[in-house]
Amino acid sequence: MPRTTTVECAGCPPLRALTFDTLGLIKVVESRGDRGIPQVVERWGNPDASKCVLAVSLDDSKKDPLLAVARKSGVIEVLNPLNGEIDVSISNVGDAGAQPEDDAVVGLHFLKRQRLSGSCTLLTCTTKGNASMRCIEVTGLTADNASTGASRTWKVCASGNILCSELDGNENYALFGGKAVEVNLWDLEKCSKIWTAKPPPKNSLGIFTPTWFTSATFLTNDDHRKFAAGTNSHQVRLYDTSAQRRPVISFDFREAPIKAVTADQDGHTIYIGNGSGDLAYVDIRTGKLLGCFLGKCSGSIRSIARHPELPVIGSCGLDSYLRLWDIKTRQLLSAVFLKQHLTNVVFDSNFTDREVAVEAQNASEIQNENEMGTVPAKRSKTSKEKGSKRKASKEKDGSKRLKSKEKSH
Amino acid sequence: MGRKLKKSDNEAMAEYENDIDLDNIDKKREKRKKKDEEGEEKRVILPSMIKNKEKRSVVHAKLQHMKKVEKRKKLKARDATEKRALELGEEPPLRQVPHTIENTREFDETICKPDDDELFAGNDADEFGSILRREQIPKILITTCRFNSTRGPLFISELLSVIPNATYKKRGTYNLKDIVKYASNMDFTAIIDVHTNRREPDALLVICLPCGPTAHFKLSNLVLRKDIKNHGNPTSHEPELVLTNFTTRLGHRIGRLIQSLFPQEPNFRGRRVVTFHNQRDFIFFRHHRYIFETKESKQNDSKGQKGKDAKGEKISQEKVVARLQECGPRFTLKLVSLQNGTFDTKSGEYEWVHKPEMDTSRRRFFL
Predict the structure, then answer these.
(1) Nearest Cβ partner for A300 among B99, B249, B349
(2) What is residue A33's DSSP assignment?
(3) Do the domain assignments include residue A117?
(4) What's the confidence (pLDDT) of residue B319?
(5) CB burial of residue A83 (10 Å; 0-12, 13-18, 19+)
(6) Parallel, antiparallel or unpaired: strands B140-144 and B166-168
(7) Least CA distance to B108: which residue of chain A?
(8) Does domain B117-292+319-358 have CATH number 3.30.70.660?
């Protein structure tokens, strides 16, 4: 007889994730309750290939959060991440003069520090290397005639294509890299390049691998000097701007190009995903592989996001699944099928705060259940064992959640 | 043997002993027989337990026959109950559906549903849209790997007869990436690369141009036209295309990829069908000619009473029978990987790669 039981995915702690796809749709995935199964709650926008999302930035402040989305048509939209209403929509075409198809936006970052009431500052960067900082008036009521305030533009590179850009935690420095562009660090206040990497030397056969950076990330929020970068030639490199211009550590990861690199909060672990769907985490201080996340992931990973509080990461990519993983056990918590090729995923960290009341209720309910635990009336014979297992893990999770709550308070 | 030896030693004693022995043996045999009979009543002797081949085969044949008879009885009884139910105007009892690997396949949430608006929006936006909307006529370039001999060229010549508007170019020593550039400059819509190993075609690489996906198939069980019995020769009409069982998202995409290789306006006068049938992730390719023939139905002759009543209708009662004749190659494809963008093994991103860790269940299919 066929195996009718499927391998169960342990549910997720309560979280809220936003995913962005190639048809320009934004989908909100929420998991409620203690070990809920994440589901698509909302879908914003209409499917349209020209609205393909290229870059995303989320300002996660508790009061008045904002979400910026750069689309293929050259439009940058600022949305409310709670209900998906478009506050401002500006066109990126005007100032560069080039067609949006040729000069797509690759980097988009909110400068959270410089946010005033009613306006925000955005750093954008295009493939041709046109970086710009602009101030946008976000007046909730008059969405149509939003005026763009002061803007500064500069050229990051003369030739080549920019493929990745990153903003450091203090928002004073930005990082750019790409195809035939070495990673370089810019001071945003002076708009000047302060550091450029040097390519590694030719190997023993005299072969030079061309520069092609695909992803980069700063290791910690308060240190702009250390960052990790992934290359197309399946290398991950650690740079320290205070030490040298060549990489401090460089190691290979599998055979496919690295497509996503994300740092953990602890400052030395990074998560890497590559073009054939392998996801792993690495201690960047030693370059040692700590473990792989296995779960029949078959499509290229485009984006990895680390949840700010819970020990959860989310990955998405061309296999159109959003996968949520437990960091400690490396187990797949849940996989949500989202129908399109996904380009980005972000976590909304304020979600747990909003749901505290509900959670508390849930927690008490769970406790009640545990007390009642021995009553077998509701469970059928076959599910007995599973039930007890689940309960055990529930208890674990409960304690985790409590910890995370303590952190947040 | 033992008896003879004993006889030579001491005859008188031996004979006496023999008598006793024989008596004993006879008694034992009787006992055994009794035991066996009791055993037969209790448990059936399986044919595999009998050591003599002749006897075993007899018993086996008997068993098989019994089974057959029983099955026939069962079917008859079922048919009878169905007929009775129909006569009485009741619902006939549901027929049992056998469990197969396909109908017990693992639940897959990616199976396409007809009410999915995102699916259709995605279809409109994808790379094959312009061909399938008939805005563009497919133009195919067929090439090979660098070393190509015996069955490779034969297979390609048959592929050229299957796919209209296809041209063959020698591979030479060009890189595939250069060929992709050349072909997209020459307005080709797809490249098919036949890879041969040990003089036997073993892989098919389909690259959609200018920016479309690249599918890599394993090719097996290739039978050329010459080796098919009673094969026909195809005409140059545009063929009809049959794609079956491409159900999931990935399957749907592969189906559209295959569809985009053929012109979208079949010439029905040609009566030519090209079939891609997906079963358990294997895609079977067949190429047929069909014909509708009219035959006088035999029902009238066999049932004389009814024939008398329907004499007037006799002339019009002609059966239309479809007949198939296979032509062209016959082969099986299995998807290995689907890559986003044109051929690029070094920096390519995969939409789907087959990994060994996916093969943990016989009932999980991806197409």
Answers:
(1) B349
(2) S
(3) yes
(4) 86
(5) exposed
(6) parallel
(7) A337
(8) no
Residue A202 lies in a domain: no
Give the CATH number for residue A107: 2.40.128
Q: What is the amino acid identity at position A132?
A: S
Cβ within 8 Å of residue A285, ≥6 positions away:
A249, A268
- In order of A15, A151, B188, B265, B267, the CA distances from B131 in angstroms are 43, 44, 12, 11, 17
What residues of chain A lie within 8 A of the CB of B122, using their CB? 23, 47, 339-340
The answer to whether residue B104 neighbours chain A at the CB level (below 8 Å) is yes
Q: What's the whole-number average pLDDT of chain B?
A: 85
Gyration radius (Cα) of chain A, Å = 22
Residue-wise pLDDT for B194-242, tens only, equals: 999 999 999 999 999 988 899 999 999 999 999 999 999 999 999 999 9
User: Which chain A residue lies closest to B104 (C-alpha atoms)?
Assistant: A2
The one-character DSSP state at B248 is B
Confidence of residue B259 (pLDDT cuts 50, 70, 90): very high
Evaluate if residue B284 carries a pLDDT over 60.
yes
Handedness of CA B229, B232, B238, B240 (dihedral sign): negative
Smallest Cβ–Cβ distance between A3 and the set B249, B350, B361 belongs to B361
Q: What residues in B contact A340, CB-CB < 8 Å?
A: 118, 122
Q: Is the peptide bond before B210 cis (omega within 30 degrees of 0)?
A: yes
Residue A321 forms beta bridges with which residues?
A: A337
Please report, for residues A374, B210, B212, B328, B343, the alpha-carbon distance to residue B338 in angstroms, rounded to integers and kept in the order given: 51, 16, 11, 26, 10
B225 contacts B329 by C-beta, under 8 angstroms: yes
Q: What angle do CA B340, B342, B347 make, to 5 degrees?
A: 70
Query: Best interface-test mutation with A: which of B351, B357, B363 has the largest number of A CBs within 10 A?
Result: B351
Which tokens hold the place of A206? 């005299």
Other CB atoms within 10 A of residue B327 CB: 22
Nearest in space to A19 (alpha carbons), one of A44, A47, A37, A2: A44
Does A145 map to a domain?
yes
Enumerate the residues of chain B whose CB falls inside 8 A of the CB of residue A2: 99, 101, 104, 363
The answer to whether A138 touches A146, Cβ cutoff 8 Å, is yes
Backbone angles phi, psi at A117, to 5 degrees: -70, 125
Q: What is the pLDDT of residue B41?
A: 54
Burial level of B286, CB count in 10 A (0-12/13-18/19+)? Answer: middle
Token duo for residue A68: 């910026």
Q: Where are the alpha helices (DSSP H) in A189-282?
A: none
Q: Does B102 touch chain A (CB under 8 A)?
A: no
Which residues of chain A are within 8 Å of residue B353 when distances are taken between CB atoms?
276-277, 298-299
Q: Which helix (H) or strand (E) holds B39?
A: helix B11-42
**For residues B348 and A232, is the Cβ–Cβ distance under 8 A?**
no
In the structure encoding, which two tokens stand for residue A305, read together? 């996001």
Q: Kindly state whether residue A76 falls inside one of the protein's structural domains.
A: yes
Reported as a single tens digit per residue, the pLDDT across B307-359 is: 444 444 555 678 899 999 999 899 999 999 999 999 998 888 999 999 988 88
Q: Judge contact between B222 and B331, C-beta under 8 A.
A: yes
| Cα–Cα distance, B350 to B331 (Å, whole number) | 25
Count of H helices and E strands in chain A? 4, 28
Q: Give the structural domain span for A66.
A: 52-155
